[in-house]
Amino acid sequence: MAEDRGVLFGAAPPGPVTWAYGDHRDQIAEVWPGSDRCVVLLHGGFWREEYDRSHLRLMASRLAADGVTVALPEYRRVGGSGGWPETFDDVRTVMAQLPSQVAATAVLVAGHSAGGHLALWAGAVAPPTHLVGVVALAPVADLAEAHRRGLDRDAVQALLAAGPDEAPDRYRQVDPVGLAATACPVRLLHAADDDLVPIALSRAYVRRHPAAKLTEVPGGHFGVVDPDSTAWPAVRAAMHDGWAPLAQ
């Protein structure tokens, strides 16, 4: 079954505030101001330059309507100035600087597809101040397996410029399935019929990290970022559940 990519092309205005966290044109974030609770939303696209933050603007605006601050960063990507290590450097910089930039006292890191990979990585390796949770939507949660499968024209090879046998240390640094467990709650949402990123990658992650919670949802790869999809109620609930530690 072909995935419905309609949500990628929906017209949605950019965030009302922009923040440059570096000098490169891609080192920018759009921000929907709200409360002192902030969702950092990392877009996907297999880390490639042809995909940018615009396709998550609708999702960002819907999340912001719940009263939280939403930050939608851009980052350098493969085919432009990104890849290893620049893509990771940018996400690390965002995580370090954003909480003070938006005066956040609680931060939830979320991401879709390749952005889900980056969210899992950031939660474990570069957690922002006041991190309360990670929500990964159809994430590329096992890079070595994604490389073995050659997902999206060998996207992992393009990102890391090497396979796991050629650069094992590189994979040890950035492959979520092999990283130490994130200290805060981690939630993954993935459709069993995802044609682009198999749910097997998320299942491998929760086998290695049994404290993480995997929820299977309907709707294929893009349903988890479409506010009008049947998967959206589960996504929205996971975002709200992400603030649960604050109530303890």
Mean pLDDT: 94
| CATH homologous superfamily classification | Alpha/Beta hydrolase fold, catalytic domain
Q: Give the terminus-to-terminus CA distance.
A: 43 Å
Largest β-sheet summary: 8 strands, mixed
CATH architecture annotation: 3-Layer(aba) Sandwich
Task: Output the CATH topology.
Answer: Rossmann fold
Number of helices: 8
Highest CATH level, the class: Alpha Beta
Form type: globular
Q: Within the largest sheet, what's the order of strands?
A: 1-2-4-3-5-6-7-8
Care to describe what's here?
The model has no long low-confidence stretch (mean pLDDT 94). Helix 3 (114-125) links the parallel strand 5 and strand 6 (131-137). The protein has an eight-stranded mixed sheet with strand order 1-2-4-3-5-6-7-8, sandwiched between helices. The chain has 248 residues and is α/β, with parallel strands linked by helices. 32% of the residues lie in helices and 18% in strands. It has one domain (6-243): Rossmann fold (3-Layer(aba) Sandwich), CATH 3.40.50.1820. The chain starts with 16 loop residues before the first strand and ends in a 7-residue tail after the last helix. It has eight helices and eight strands, in the order E-E-E-H-E-H-E-H-E-H-H-H-E-H-E-H. The protein has helices at 57-64, 86-101, 114-125, 143-149, 151-160, 168-174, 199-208, 232-241; strands spanning 17-20, 28-32, 37-42, 69-73, 106-112, 131-137, 186-191, 213-217.
